[in-house]
Amino acid sequence: MTSPPLPGWKRFLFGVVCLVGVPLLLLVVLEGGSSLLLLVADLYRAPPQLTERPHTPDDTLLGWVNRPDFYDHDLYAPGVYLRTNSQGFRNDHAITPRVPPGRARAICSGDSFTLGYGVDNDHTWCALLEHRIHGLETVNMGQGGYGADQAYLWYKRDAEHLDHHVQIFAVILEDFRRAARRSFQGFGKPVLRAVGDSLVVDNVPVPRWPYRMPRLAAYLAAKRPLLARLQIVQLEQGVWRRVTGSSVKGAEESDSAMWPVADRMFRDLARLNRSKHSTLVVVFLPIPVDWKDTGSDRLRRWLAEAAPRDGYLFVDLVEEFRRLPSDSLDRLFLESHPHSHHGVVGHEWIAAQLSRRLLEVPGVAAVLASDGLLWTSRPDERLSHRRNRIQREAIPRHRRVGIGFQ
User: Fold this and answer.
1) Domain count, the chain
2) Domain interval for residue 188
3) Is the pTM of this model over 0.85?
């Protein structure tokens, strides 16, 4: 007994499934399987080792800080060393609480661009200022990966007792965005919060488990962007935002939310410096992306407007950087990357610009003159010479041994 033939619409539907549905299903399986294999391969690949880990143990207030009396002759490349003193500053000698007679002192605060990632102690812009201003002693309190909040807290805890004439607080745009986060590259950090006219420190003591398992913390942080690309993760985040009513803040909105904290922070630093007869100078350092990108323009305008009101000086090196010819930019940095660090020529350029700008400020010049310090004629000659070097020489590319806090 034979079965009755299928109705025409069922035969048509079966044909559509065979001709369209089966190939489409195979495509979905192959695409999903390929994505899964690529994800597994990326997850299996170990992240580069952070160069800073050997000299940055955990700190319950700051997250991490330089190890005292650390020395590695070949940390960044053969012969490119890093040395810290007994206080954890990147100096070759201990800093006395009182300024030595006949000298002036500048404290350099900031992140890895102040620390001098990729160059040795003698070629950071902070150290080079000593060679440009006769009788000046500099203290390098730069630290890899720091947000502006951590640099502020480190100064208040470990340097406020040091006499000084100038505090140079150097920043890039990312320093302010880091300040809004509770961790950086997997490692916990403090968070500043504005309450009225004051600042409150949250997330302290800083969670210590990432520092006990640094490889795991670095791995999870490095792989988080990969997991965030998964469609199921994006779907979950979309549903969560819809249920909670939250939204993803854009860069400008995040910067606006961070500004009240930054404003109070610099106001407090200016007050602390005045109490020590010192001048706070906030310096905006350029990075490659600043040459064309306008992302930092808004924040730099805020700083320029707030400086006279809050009692500090603002030096904007981004505008000077944008006046350089495009074919000289790569010579300032170690490698071509939006957040790459300055090389030797880059640090020399910053020191030349900054030393000139500092002495154009009557208050700073008066402080130096009051200590009997003389501004030699050689720095201006070196400035012209080094400007020419920037246009005709390329800095040697160091052999990198890892990645750094940027």
Assistant:
1) 2
2) 53-206+247-392
3) no
